[in-house]
Amino acid sequence: MPHEIVPPRNRRFAKAMRQDMTRAELRLWQRLRKPGLEGLRFRRQTPIGPYIVDFFCPERTLIVEVDGDQHGFERGEVRDLRRDVWLSERGYRVLRFWNLDVMTNLDGVCDTILAAAAERHDQPE
Question: Per residue in 83-115, pLDDT tens?
Fold first, then answer.
């Protein structure tokens, strides 16, 4: 995985975002944080290159995004696609969940994350 230069303003913004997470992000973070989901370690609001991702599992190069309503509009979808392409070109796998999914089906969301993490673990390097 190439090391991406992170602009200092992104580091500051990520730190501020950790203090202002959405209800859905907080709910998922409670499940992902120490001791972690099935032993996987996640970081929250992590800068990667020009972006800040909601949750990042470095050992599996897995990114989890929790999307609010603004992501459902054309502008948000285009921005998300551009971002996902940039990240996947660098070897990251991006999973996206709607806020509503996290709030109403947390177990299903976590099962999907675990399945993706298992796929990443089983892939040869």
Answer: 999 999 999 999 999 999 999 999 999 999 999
pTM: 0.80
Question: 23-32 and 106-122 helices cross at what angle (nearest 10)?
Answer: 50
Tokens, residue 121? 């673990």
Residue 52 phi/psi, 5° resolution?
Answer: -120, 120
CA distance 59 to 11: 21
Residue given tokens 């979808």 in the structure block: 77
103 Cβ neighbours under 8 A, 6+ residues apart:
23, 24, 27
For the chain, domains (ranges, CATH) are: 8-120 (3.40.960.10)
